[in-house]
Amino acid sequence: MSTVLRDRQTKIVATLGPASNTEEMIRKLFLAGVDVFRLNFSHGEHKDHAERVKMIRKIEEETDHPIAIIADMQGPKLRVGKFKDGKIELSVGQKIRLDLDPTPGDGERVNLPHPEVINTMTIGSHILLDDGKVRMEIVDKGDGFLVGEIQAGRYLSNNKGFNVPGVVLPIAALTPKDRIDLEAALGMGVDWIAQSFVQKPEDVIEAKKLIAGRAALMIKLEKPSALQYLDQMIAQADGVMLARGDLGVEIPPEEVPLAQKRVVRAVRFAGKPVVVATQMLESMIENPSPTRAEANDVATAVFDGTDAVMLSAETAAGQYPLEAVQIMSRICKRVEGDELYRKIIDTDHPDARHNDASDAITVAADQVAKDIHAACIVTYTTSGGTALRAVRQRPAVRIVCMTQNLGTARRLSLSYGVHSLKIDHVTTFGDAVKMAQQMIGERAIAKKGERFVMTAGVPFGTPGSTNILRVAWVE
Predict the structure, then answer these.
(1) What is the largest CA-CA distance in the chain?
(2) Beta carbons within 10 angstroms of residue 273's beta carbon
(3) What single string gives the DSSP state of each residue in 51-98?
(4) Which of 217, 212, 337 is nearest to 272 (CA)?
(5) How is domain 87-163 classified at the architecture level of CATH?
(6) Domain positions in the chain
(7) Confidence bin at 369 (pLDDT 50/70/90)
(8) E strand or H helix at 27
(9) Mapped to the 3 state alphabet, what secondary structure does 384-431 carry?
(10) What span, in angstroms and rounded, lies between the C-alpha atoms of 363 and 328?
């Protein structure tokens, strides 16, 4: 029986890696507050990821608490080649030839193993290397080469990644490696596939076809071009991750906070989960506590109404993975407990979609729960649609999702405020209410005599048909 009840609505995603690859540490992270585990397929072997999936599923079974797993695809990483001495020293005004020759480079030239980049770039375009630490402007171009003039930066070393801001590259979002990784991840039974470096709606459509309903698709917004097609891509995807690292390199820093607010709001109003990611508690890779600015960054994402906040290297390779989860959980809880937070969330509130009875029922359920001081809102769902409608309202109380589908229960553990319960088959709404009364009482979600609001779609199993609302109480 599940005894794990989070005291916050915002979820926490943690990345697994060398610092968190044992069953003992994964269990500690889960108990400390991790709701979703991320496997980064940019690193590690398939057998290592498969072993971690087994560990997570074992913990899930022990605690009777559904846990979501995200498999994050590497995507088309753009990198320069190697240097004879491992790195070169740079000076402003220095010119470097970027070409297709794989020979190790020096201070005059280096391999750029991406002909599509060379073909697309024009004189006057800019390349940002090593997360923007090195900047160069293209001053010449020829057959199979570019010449860049250094504008900023002191050193450039082997295989550093680069970005080309303002340029839509003719590169598929799913590389041959990604396709292999995707099939392997689906074979492991992951719940979400995260697709990196999407640039246009066609990228999302292609991934959806390959996944073929075997997992949910989360698109990662890392390219400015993706923001231009935001609404179309949200419509195609099942969820969105705002990966502010690469995005922050390609757009001006002052635009990043605005992009975050715009994306979180758009995805929330679409009724899909959104994750704010990258560098949230970066200093905790080496330090036992975050900077005040980092704490504020996490709090801002919560104030924005995100479904989840994410830890990357902090839990994958950092010295203090457990402490990072604990402090992130405390920040989320503290913000949600502040009266200003509830005012902000309720002020910018999605209304029921026009002529949509299911949305009207869900909006009414949120209001009824407030009026009667309900202990929770219970949704009975097969596909997850009824629960996601409730999540869209960002209610002040916990959303208990009862479902016969374990995959649905796992996927929804990423969504704001959802506590998923895998249940046995029921045939009538009355039976579902009785089961809800029993289960939320046994799990201390509500006390005897406390009321709850329940929504469902009748007949059961019809996606998108939330059409019934009932007030009940724990007996």
Answers:
(1) 78
(2) 29
(3) HHHHHHHHHHHHHT---EEEEE------B---BTTSEEE--TT-EEEE
(4) 217
(5) Beta Barrel (2.40)
(6) 11-76+173-342, 87-163, 357-473
(7) very high
(8) helix 23-32
(9) CHHHHHHHHCCCCCEEEEEECCHHHHHHHCCCCCEEEEECCCCCCHHH
(10) 30
Terminal CA-CA length for the chain: 19
Position 301: which residue type? A
* Cα Rg of the chain (Å, integer): 24
CA angle 226, 231, 234 (to 5 degrees): 80
Marked catalytic residue, from 8, 109, 220, 394? 220
- Asked whether 26 and 37 are in contact (CB, 8 A), the reply is yes
pLDDT of 173 reads 86
Rounded distance, CA 148 to CA 272, Å?
A: 42
Question: From CA 125, how far away is CA 165, in angstroms rounded?
Answer: 8
Say how far residue 204 (Cα) sits from the centre of its chain.
15
Let me know if 38 is a catalytic residue: yes
220 noted as active-site residue = yes
Interval 15-35 mean pLDDT:
97
Please state the φ and ψ torsions of residue 148, each to the nearest 5 degrees: -110, 140
- From the list 105, 326, 73, the residue with the least C-alpha distance to 198 is 73
Q: pTM above 0.90?
A: yes
- Residue corresponding to tokens 């590169």: 171
Catalytic residue among 28, 79, 214, 262: 79
Nearest to 13 by CA among 230, 301, 233, 228: 301
Q: Is the preceding peptide bond at 165 cis, omega within 30 degrees of 0?
A: no
By DSSP bridging, strand 376-380 and strand 398-403 are parallel
**Architecture label for domain 357-473:** 3-Layer(aba) Sandwich (3.40)
Q: Which candidate in 6, 8, 11, 38 is catalytic?
A: 38
**pLDDT tens-place string over residues 301-335:** 999 999 999 999 999 999 999 999 999 999 999 99
Contact 332, 8 (CB under 8 A): yes
Two tokens, residue 311:
């830890």
CATH architecture of the domain covering 11-76+173-342 = Alpha-Beta Barrel (3.20)
